[in-house]
């Protein structure tokens, strides 16, 4: 009789523990995409761009963007990038992006361009230990800018 009672109590105890864990797991708040973007560092673009040069590294060909609309789009694209935490181990970039701002300062970024509706990756050449992820909308904007030339 004692064995049956001990077995019964252990089954009840195990059930209570599992039942309690199930409710705890469902109450965990997962951050929304918006919260993720707000909590993670973004690329700041507080100066106006004068010229943006997009160079395809393998071919060595360059496209120069200096009209107002394209520069505003590039500013929007760069500002949409979100810092990705972790160790960077990545292949050679597809493009080099040279940005000259209104103060004639030059900033060089590496760009791994995704396909349509895919994310892309940026890296500042002055900080090769950090990458920034561009959302698919920004990738599509870059592809559209390249097609327009």
Automatic annotation (TrEMBL):
Keywords: Signal. The keyword rRNA-binding does not apply. Residues 55-147 form the YhfM-like domain. The keyword Transcription does not apply. It comes from the Bacteria. Residues 1-19 form the signal peptide. It holds the Pfam family YhfM. Transmembrane segments: none annotated. This is YhfM-like domain-containing protein.
């Amino acid at each position: 009789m004692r064995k049956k009672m001990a077995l019964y109590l252990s089954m009840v105890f195990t059930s209570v523990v599992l039942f309690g864990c199930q409710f705890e797991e469902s109450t965990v708040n997962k951050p929304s995409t918006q919260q993720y973007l707000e909590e993670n560092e973004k690329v700041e673009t507080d100066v106006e761009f004068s010229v943006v040069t997009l160079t395809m590294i393998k071919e060595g060909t360059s496209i120069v963007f200096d009209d107002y609309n394209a520069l505003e789009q590039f500013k929007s694209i760069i500002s949409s990038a979100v810092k990705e935490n972790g160790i960077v181990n990545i292949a050679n970039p597809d493009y080099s992006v040279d940005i000259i701002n209104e103060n004639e300062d030059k900033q060089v970024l590496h760009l791994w361009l995704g396909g349509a509706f895919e994310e892309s990756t940026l890296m500042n050449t002055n900080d090769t230990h950090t990458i920034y992820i561009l959302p698919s909308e920004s990738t599509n904007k870059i592809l559209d800018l390249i097609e327009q030339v």
